[in-house]
Each structure stands twice: as structure tokens, then as C-alpha cells.
Design a protein that fits this description.
The complex is a heterodimer.
Chain A: H1 3-30, H2 36-58, H3 66-84, H4 86-109, H5 115-118, H6 120-132, E1 140-143, E2 146-152, E3 155-157, H7 159-184, E4 187-189, E5 192-194, H8 197-217, H9 220-238, H10 241-261, H11 263-273, H12 284-294, H13 326-359, H14 363-387, H15 405-429
Antiparallel strand pairs in A: 1-2, 2-3, 4-5
Chain B: H1 2-29, H2 31-35, H3 42-48, E1 55-56, E2 62-69, E3 76-80, H4 88-91, E4 94-95, E5 99-100, H5 102-106, H6 108-112, H7 117-125, E6 134-137, H8 141-154, E7 157-162, E8 169-175, H9 183-192, H10 202-205, H11 215-224, E9 234-236, E10 240-242, E11 245-247, E12 255-258, H12 260-265, H13 269-279, H14 281-291, E13 310-313, E14 316-317, H15 326-330, E15 336-337, H16 340-351, E16 356-357, E17 362-366, E18 372-375, E19 380-382, H17 387-403, E20 417-424, E21 438-446, E22 453-462, H18 466-469, H19 471-484
Parallel strand pairs in B: 1-6
Antiparallel strand pairs in B: 1-2, 2-3, 4-5, 6-17, 7-8, 7-22, 9-12, 10-11, 13-14, 13-15, 16-19, 17-18, 20-21, 21-22
Classes of the chains: A mainly alpha, B alpha+beta.
Chain lengths: 432, 485
């Protein structure tokens, strides 16, 4: 079966899943079957099929599993968000369509994605400016002590979601060019292999950017995500584990220093280590998230069965259920098995992404595919890890599932880049 | 670079496995502990969406029921107690924000219809909603009302009535009472009322000196151990020097050699003090323990709301090897501290031919379709004394009511066995620190030949004696139960 036919075959069950999910939610909320779920399923299928047809024409050789896997997460996310609040789900559906449009536009205009290399410094600057934007007076927004959002007129978005792509593009390009000197020029000092300082300058900028995010944006999650992606790329480019260790040490040192000086970051870490200290205040979100999971058990309570607000009030029982803690809600409603399914889908996406990197012929493609896949997987890890108390809980979204336009749209752009690389890699390997 | 990419993927496999591990921990392995955390209101909130079963009295009177509020997602049930403060103790309350207590807490699983996870999955597959079962109690509303009314007139205290042959608890009243319907509004105030402590169930948590009622236990130990027979007689001088302090009888009366019947009828302190010393600490404590002292009474109430009875030293229970003033323990003084429930168990065991049945408030669990799911099986807790000893104790206790210190407990046409108690509690802060206050008791059962009910009534901080203030409560409650049944 050709790649695109496999994709097509995979999309049908995804649409059926969406239909089944909505049916379950409707049945729970109205105690009746509603053929609206069929309609939603049909809309979803049409949107996916249209995108599929476009892929069939433009990127016939691209990886056939990535788009259905992402569609699966989106379908799942739509059902979960609808179950939390139908109006939010309508926004989310619109963003899904907008995401598909940007997906198509990216593929259309970046067919020859090598141009990205030419503008790498511009892209790096844009990425940094995007990061800065939430602190700019007039357009910046503070959410829960962190500066995450930007609002220009009616348009509000989270620039970090787009910034992560810019950063990966820059790093992939820069490392492609300098990896040799980084490896060859490395010296051993006191038994530790150090990178050459001259070529490492821009790398320090990345470290600086991560620290900057901690200090000024106070966004521990994005900071962690950026820096981990950077280390992953550095490792793949140079093969030197010592660089990664040094980088990690630098990050931890910086994080430790700022954690002890910046109250917001400090509090996040404190709450992570000792959530029961203030169970009604700072510890509320993480504790409620864990309590919600405890309630799920092996099989969960079923779609739309979990409590999100205290009945009869508007007090949140699971704060930020549609964004930060949506994973806890998944565990609650679908149980450990459902949650493992979600994690497995992210792992499969990571596997396909790294497969693309393996197949890619040139260094930039390899590094770009690696970086995009890594940053995506790390994002999933950071928020699921936060909700399950593996690491401090921070405000990043669960890609394609959480409510949030920036996240959905940016991740579709990320997916488009991966498919572009995949298509070229497969063409070249088949000698076309 | 491919080698590194594969390794990087390996790292992600490990990281995601960690996520699965943590999720499993919270969702499955640690789930039970998390559900019991104080900060976790989720189980209560979810239970609030289940129609909690009713609690019903023996005669069908509804003690607690749940009424729906709101619709759809905000539908929830709120607990109502139609009888108000009548059953505040021992039924307790159950509210989402305020938590639960007493019987409501102990029988929570039945009341919300909790089952194993597998059972609830089956229910889910069959489309059944979780519903709570009703719990029927042994409580007799008329007896409960009589007990509470009498207590209201007499003073703070408690009444416990147990059916000797089965252990069914027919009444358990504690004064001051509280209205469980007011808990959502007044909980803090009720909790902070340290003078009256209305939320304390004095029947199971009141720790009082038993006074002369304890002489029944001493007598039981004496007969059971063979130290005395009903015929054994010895003199009871007053005052009697014990452990360096003189022990006196009422009105400082000295008695020539007398036997058990006479000594119990007249509640002769120095006679029982000597008996305690003759029996010895080992055997006295052995009998006490068989009656249930030194361990938590096996009643269906939460463990932390049922106190142990025994000799206390700085909140620690003493055992048979610790030094005590045995003569004063034998007459219910020293550091002896008992709950009314414990003394009711003593009365019930004697009434039931020496067999102590486990006291139980619940009688059966009925599912929403009216089927009896579970039934309380009367079970024996211990046999503190032989049938013979029990009969001899009964005879002696009949004398107390017919011609001794407990005549106010007598019921027309019904033989009553009992024992009074009046423990002096001077300088007791909870009584206001006066010198005249007593803990007044009456413990007994009726009819003496064929006991249907064993009752303990006690009043704290009273200037009156057991026969004046506690015996009439016994009589009222006993009459109510005997006439009703």
C-alpha cells in the first residue's frame, strides 16, 4: 500500500473515534443519543480528508503515520475540551481548522525549506523577540505570576509556542555548520572535554535565553523545554555527552540561583517538593491533579464523569482542567489504560519523527527533524511530568490535546516541517 | 549522527516510561491513601452526587435521608435529619464540607453503595448508577426520646440501652445534644464550645469515674475466682486504713460480718475494698478485661470516637502489672475512668447469663429495591462470668432496687436488678470547680428473671445521688422499652 493510502486508511478510524467520543459525552450529559456527534465526526473527517488530498498532491512520499497520529490527538483533545466546556471546544475546532490552513501554507511556501538556513539569524532574533513580547508594556499579559501571553487587539497568543520552532530552526542550522569545529576544537581540561569557546558563543546565547525566560518571563516550563531541546540537538550534532553534562550543570546552576531569588520560580519548586504545606493555596492545583488521578484507577470513570468544579458552585476542583491539568482529567475519566494510550501516541509520534531524522540525507534536515521531534516530545513530557509530580508543574500545554490556539497552530506548523523533511528524505532514498 | 538519534529516542522511551510509572503510582498503587487525605474532598463530593441511603430507626422512623438539589451536572444530594437533635448522637452527620462522624461515618460504604472496582465496572456496563443502601438501626425512637428528655432535666450525661441477648443498642443518648441539620452552619461554634462539648457523644466518649457501679465487676471477680461464695461473710469496719489513707463507708457505719447480698444492697465501701484486695490485681483485671475494659468496645462507631475504659495514668491505660490502689479501684474510685457504654456492657453481660454480646447499632442493610443485603448476626464478645455467677449477681442487684440504695429504679410489677453509683468529683473544672458535684449513675436490667433490656444512665456534675437522679431515668427508659415491646 502506498504511503498516502495508509494515511487515508488510518484517518477513518480516527474520525470514528471522534464520533464515538462525542456520542459518549452527549449520552452522559443529556442521557440520550444525539446525531450531532455524527455531524461533528463528518466535519472532522472532511477537514482531515481535504488535508490528506493536499498531502497526496504535494508530499506523496511523506511519512504516512504522523498526520493520523496528530489527528488522533486532536480528535481526543476536542472531545475532552468539549466535555469541559462546549464553547471552548468551538474555539478549539476553529483553531484546528486554522492550524490545518497554516499547515498547508507552510508546506506550500516552504517546499524548499533550505531557505530557512539562509535566514537563521533573522529567525533567531524573531524567536527571541517573541519571547520578549509578553513583557512589553501594552501587549504583555501576566498569568499566574508568569508572563506567557501577548494580546494585540482581539488577537491573543502565547509566543513561546512559535518561538520554540524558531529556536530549533536556528540551532539546527547553526549546529549543522559548526558541529565539526565543535567536535575537533574541543579540548580536554582537567579530564573534562570542553567545547571551543569561539564557536560556542551563540550556544551561550541559548543558555542566556533560557535563563532570561526564567527571570523575565518566569516561565519555568518553556525554559526547561527550550534548554532540553538545545541539549538534545547539541548531543546529536556533536556526539559529546560531556557537552550535555556541562550544559545541564549550567542550567541547573542558573535555575537554582534564580529559583532562590525569584519568588514565582521558587514557589513552583517548593510546591513540587512539598505540596501538602499549603493544600488550599499554592499546593491546590498539583494536589487536586493527583487526587483526580487517584480517582481514575485502572479504567477511569468514563467520559464526562469526572468532577471539574465543586457541584453547585463555580469553584474549580481541578484548576486549569482544559490546559495545564488536562492529563489529570484524562487519567480520571479514562484511567491508567487511557492515559498510557495517550503517552503511547506521543511516543509513536516521537518514533516517527526520529525515523525521519534517520532517513534524512543532509545534516540540516537531520538536525531539524531531530530538534522538532525532541521539542515536541519534551513539551509532552514537561506537562505530563508536571501533572504527575515528576517535575515541578508549569504552564505548558499538552500538544494537540490542551485547549489553546497558539499551541494547536504552532504544532501544526511543526508537523508541516517534519512532513516536508520526510517527503524529501524518502524521495532521495528512493532515488527519485 | 544516526547513532545519537537512536540513543536520544531511547532516552525518550525511558522518560515516557517514567511518566507511565508515576501515573500508575497515583492512579492505582497510591490511590487508596490519596483518597483518604484530608485535603482530598473529591471522594466526598462524588458521594454527594450519589443518593446516599437512608438511616432508619427500628420502627421505620426516618433518621437521615438525602434530598436532591440542583439539576444536571450540579445535581447533588444534601443530608436531612427529620428528627433533629434526637439522634444527633449516635448517628452523627455527613456533609461535604464538614465531613462525617459517628454512625454516618462508620457505615459510609453501605450508605453510598460502595463496591469493589470490578463490581462498579459491571454496574457501569449495565448502565446502573451507583446508589446507596438504607441502613436500618436497632434504635427505638420512643426510648431515645425518653432518655434525652430525662437527661435534659437531670443534667449533662448519657444513657445507653442494650438488649442483653443480642447486643442490639436500643437507645444511646447524650446530653447536651446537637441538631445535625445545623452542622453546615454551626460546626465551628459547636466545636469551639469546650464547656458543653455538644459534639462529644458522652455515651462512648464520656470518661467518668464509675463509683459504686463498679462493685458489680469486683463482685463478679470475687465469685468467679472462687475468692468468695454468696455465703462468705466478713466484717466491714469504717474507717478502714488503706494504703495510708482511711476508707469510709456512708455515714461512717461499721458493719459486723456480712455477705455479698447485704454488702451490695447497702453499697458497703470497705467490704468491697477488702474484696478487691482478696481477689488480687491479676484476677480483678482479668475480669475487667473480659467485660471489655482496656480495649475499644466492639460497637459499630468509628474507632476514634469510642474510648477505652480502665485505670488511667496520664492518658495511658494501666494494666495488671502497674501499681494501683486496689481497694479503691474495687469501689470504682482511684484513677478508674469508664464510658457509659462500657458499664452498659457490664449490665448486659450479667443480664445475659454471663455472656457479653457485641453491642451493635445497625440491624440490617437494605438495597434500593428493598432486598436485605446484610443482616446483623448477634455474636458473643466474651463470657466474663459463668451463668451461676451471673445469677448470683442478679440476686444481689435485685436487693439494691427492692430494699437498698436504688429503690427509685423500681418498676411496678417488674423485678429490676441494678446498682447505683455516686462518684464525688470535686474541683472538676468541667463542673465549674465546685466541691459538691458528683457523677451519678444507675446501671441495671429488667425484668430481672428474664432480662429484655440493660440500661445505664449517668449524670455529670450533679449534687444529687445516683438513686435520685439516675435511677428515675433508668426506670423511664426501661418502662418505655418494656411497654413498647
Amino acid at each position: 500500500m502506498s504511503a498516502r493510502n495508509r494515511e487515508l486508511t488510518a484517518l477513518v478510524p480516527v474520525a470514528l473515534l471522534l464520533t464515538a467520543g462525542f456520542t459518549a459525552v452527549f449520552a452522559q450529559e443529556n442521557a440520550r443519543l444525539d446525531n450531532l456527534s455524527l455531524l461533528f465526526g463528518a466535519y472532522f473527517l472532511v477537514a482531515c480528508l481535504a488535508t490528506h488530498v493536499y498531502l497526496r498532491i504535494r508530499l506523496p512520499k511523506a511519512d504516512p503515520y504522523l498526520f493520523p497520529l496528530v489527528a488522533l490527538l486532536t480528535a481526543f483533545g476536542l472531545v475532552m475540551v468539549y466535555r469541559i466546556d462546549p464553547t471552548l471546544a468551538r474555539d478549539q475546532a476553529n483553531w484546528f481548522v486554522l492550524g490545518l490552513v497554516l499547515f498547508v501554507l507552510t508546506i506550500h511556501f516552504l517546499r524548499d525549506y533550505d531557505v530557512l538556513e539562509r535566514y537563521r539569524y533573522t529567525i533567531a532574533v524573531v524567536g527571541l523577540l517573541l519571547l520578549l513580547a509578553p513583557r512589553l508594556p501594552g501587549i504583555g499579559q501576566q498569568v499566574n505570576g508568569a508572563y506567557l501571553g501577548v494580546k494585540i487587539g482581539p488577537l491573543a497568543f502565547q509566543p513561546a509556542e512559535f518561538s520554540k520552532i524558531c529556536l530549533v530552526v536556528f540551532l539546527a542550522s547553526y549546529l549543522r555548520e559548526h558541529r565539526e569545529v565543535l567536535i575537533v576544537g574541543a579540548r580536554r581540561v582537567l579530564g573534562v572535554t570542553l567545547p571551543p569557546l569561539k564557536h560556542f558563543g551563540p550556544m551561550l546565547v541559548v543558555w542566556g535565553a533560557s535563563m532570561f525566560m526564567l527571570v523575565f518571563i518566569r516561565d519555568l516550563g518553556s525554559s526547561l523545554m527550550f534548554f532540553a531541546a538545545f541539549l538534545a540537538l547539541l548531543y546529536v550534532a556533536t556526539g559529546r555527552l560531556s557537552f550535555v553534562v556541562i550544559g545541564m550543570a549550567m542550567f541547573l546552576l542558573g535555575a537554582w540561583f534564580f529559583a532562590s531569588t525569584i519568588p514565582h520560580v521558587h514557589e513552583r519548586v517548593d510546591v513540587w517538593l512539598n505540596p501538602y504545606a499549603h493544600p488550599q493555596k499554592s499546593g491546590y492545583q498539583i494536589l487536586q491533579s493527583i487526587f483526580a488521578q487517584a480517582d481514575g484507577g485502572l479504567f477511569g470513570k468514563g467520559f464526562a464523569q469526572a468532577l471539574i468544579v465543586v457541584p453547585g458552585t463555580h469553584d474549580a476542583l481541578l484548576p486549569a482542567a482544559q490546559t495545564d491539568t488536562i492529563y489529570a482529567l484524562i487519567v480520571n475519566e479514562l484511567g491508567l489504560f487511557g492515559a498510557c494510550g495517550v503517552i503511547l501516541v506521543y511516543l509513536l509520534i516521537a518514533a516517527r519523527g526520529f525515523k525521519i531524522a534517520l532517513l534524512a540525507a543532509d545534516g540540516f534536515s537531520k538536525l531539524l527533524a531531530t530538534g522538532l521531534t525532541a521539542v515536541f516530545a519534551i513539551q509532552a513530557f514537561v506537562i505530563i511530568g508536571g501533572v504527575t509530580r515528576v517535575i515541578p508543574l508549569t504552564g505548558v500545554t499538552l500538544p494537540f490535546i490542551s485547549y489553546g490556539g497558539s499551541s494547536v497552530v504552532a504544532n501544526f506548523v511543526l508537523l508541516a516541517l517534519l512532513l516536508l523533511i520526510s517527503d524529501r528524505a524518502r524521495r532521495e532514498s528512493e532515488g527519485l | 549522527m544516526n547513532r545519537q538519534i537512536v540513543k536520544l529516542f531511547g532516552l525518550f522511551v525511558v522518560l515516557f516510561a517514567v511518566l507511565v510509572g508515576f501515573t500508575s503510582y497515583w492512579a492505582v498503587f497510591d490511590a487508596k491513601a490519596l483518597k483518604e487525605k484530608d485535603a482530598n474532598k473529591r471522594p466526598l463530593l462524588e458521594q454527594q452526587q450519589i443518593r446516599r441511603g437512608r438511616i432508619v430507626a427500628d420502627d421505620g422512623t426516618v433518621i437521615a435521608r438525602s434530598v436532591p438539589k440542583g439539576h444536571g451536572a450540579s445535581l447533588r444530594y444534601v443530608r436531612r435529619y427529620p428528627e433533629g437533635s434526637l439522634f444527633g448522637h449516635p448517628i452523627g452527620y455527613s456533609f461535604v464540607r464538614q465531613g462525617d462522624s459517628e454512625f454516618e461515618q462508620f457505615h459510609n460504604d453501605e450508605l453510598v453503595g460502595n463496591e469493589s472496582e470490578f463490581g462498579s465496572i459491571l454496574d457501569e456496563l449495565r448502565g446502573r448508577e451507583q446508589e446507596g443502601d438504607d441502613v436500618v438501626t436497632n434504635l427505638d425512637p420512643a426510648a431515645q426520646a425518653a432518655a434525652l428528655e430525662d437527661l435534659r432535666e437531670a443534667g449533662f450525661g448519657a444513657v445507653v440501652a442494650i438488649e442483653p441477648s443480642t447486643g442490639r443498642v436500643r437507645a444511646m443518648a447524650s446530653n447536651p445534644p446537637y441538631d445535625p441539620n445545623r452542622i453546615p452552619y454551626d460546626l465551628t461554634e459547636l466545636n469551639e464550645n469546650e464547656l458543653e462539648t455538644p459534639l462529644v457523644n458522652r455515651a462512648t466518649q464520656g470518661q467518668y469515674p464509675p463509683g459504686s457501679t463498679f462493685k458489680v465487676v469486683t463482685a463478679a471477680a470475687g465469685l468467679e475466682s472462687g475468692t468468695i461464695t454468696p455465703e462468705t461473710a466478713f466484717a466491714a469496719p469504717s474507717p478502714l486504713e488503706v494504703e495510708g489513707t482511711p476508707l469510709e463507708n456512708d455515714f461512717n457505719t461499721s458493719y459486723p460480718p456480712i455477705s455479698l447480698d447485704y454488702a451490695l444492697t447497702n453499697s458497703v465501701n470497705t467490704w468491697f475494698g477488702q474484696l478487691g484486695q482478696k481477689v488480687g490485681q491479676d484476677r480483678l483485671f482479668e475480669t475487667m478485661e473480659k467485660f471489655g475494659f482496656n480495649s475499644r468496645p466492639p460497637i459499630d462507631l468509628p474507632e476514634d470516637q469510642v474510648y477505652e475504659s480502665g485505670v488511667y495514668s496520664e492518658e495511658q491505660l494501666l494494666n495488671r502489672n502497674d501499681p494501683v490502689d486496689l481497694a479503691r479501684v474495687a469501689i470504682g474510685q482511684e484513677r478508674l475512668s469508664v464510658t457509659p457504654l462500657q458499664m452498659a456492657m457490664v449490665a448486659a453481660a450479667v443480664a445475659n447469663g454471663g455472656k457479653l454480646m457485641k453491642p451493635q447499632i445497625w440491624s440490617r442493610v437494605v438495597d434500593p429495591d428493598g432486598r436485605v443485603v446484610k443482616k446483623m448476626d448477634p455474636s458473643q464478645y466474651s463470657q466474663p462470668v459463668s451463668e451461676e455467677t451471673a445469677a448470683e449477681l442478679t440476686t444481689a442487684m435485685e436487693g439494691v432496687v427492692s430494699e437498698g440504695t436504688g429503690t427509685n429504679a423500681a418498676i411496678e410489677g417488674v423485678p429490676v436488678a441494678g446498682k447505683t453509683g455516686t462518684a464525688e468529683t470535686p474541683y472538676n473544672e468541667s463542673c465549674g470547680g465546685g466541691t459538691e458535684e458528683n457523677q451519678a449513675w444507675f446501671m441495671g436490667f429488667a425484668p430481672a428473671g428474664e432480662p429484655k433490656i440493660a440500661i445505664v444512665a449517668t449524670v455529670e456534675c450533679t449534687t444529687q445521688f445516683g438513686n435520685d437522679v439516675a435511677a428515675p431515668i433508668f426506670r423511664d427508659v426501661a418502662e418505655t422499652i418494656l411497654n413498647g415491646g
